[in-house]
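Q: Given only this backbone (152 positions), what sequence would you predict?
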């Protein structure tokens, strides 16, 4: 069976992602899904429900609160990119796409590289460090075609 290659395009930032499907001949372009991190617009206090721990001094009376060891937003962003990588790996194992183009801001790009298994990383045709998530679909299609070098 000689089928045409399907491209998936992941357009992402630290809290939002759009997965697009493209095919060159015959030309097709549509959005597969859009994902949004639940923690994207929350404050640290809303993300972390527990109060800070307390430290007691052995030298004398008094306590103070401990600062968290990590930033709750950083943790939420890591979790979001991990979920994206898992979703892509599952789709790849089901044969939903042949090649992947990743367009993401530099920080998210680095996180995705760390999260992807080698088998998934082998399907990545190209990476572009841009944040295009907020573009309307018609403008996004034009920008993605430019990045891929596909003439109109």
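A: Predicted residues:
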């Amino acid at each position: 069976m000689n089928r045409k290659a399907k491209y998936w395009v992941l357009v992402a930032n630290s809290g939002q992602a759009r997965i697009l499907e493209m095919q060159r001949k015959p030309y097709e372009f549509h959005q597969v899904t859009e994902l949004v991190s639940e923690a994207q617009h929350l404050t640290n206090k809303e993300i972390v429900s527990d109060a800070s721990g307390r430290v007691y001094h052995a030298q004398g009376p008094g306590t103070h609160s401990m600062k968290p060891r990590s930033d709750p937003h950083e943790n939420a962003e890591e979790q979001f990119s991990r979920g994206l990588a898992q979703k892509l790996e599952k789709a790849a194992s089901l044969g939903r796409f042949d090649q992947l183009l990743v367009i993401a801001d530099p920080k998210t790009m680095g996180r995705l590289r760390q999260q992807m298994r080698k088998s998934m990383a082998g399907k990545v045709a190209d990476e572009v460090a841009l944040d295009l998530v907020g573009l309307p679909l018609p403008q996004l299609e034009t920008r993605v075609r430019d990045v891929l070098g596909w003439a109109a």
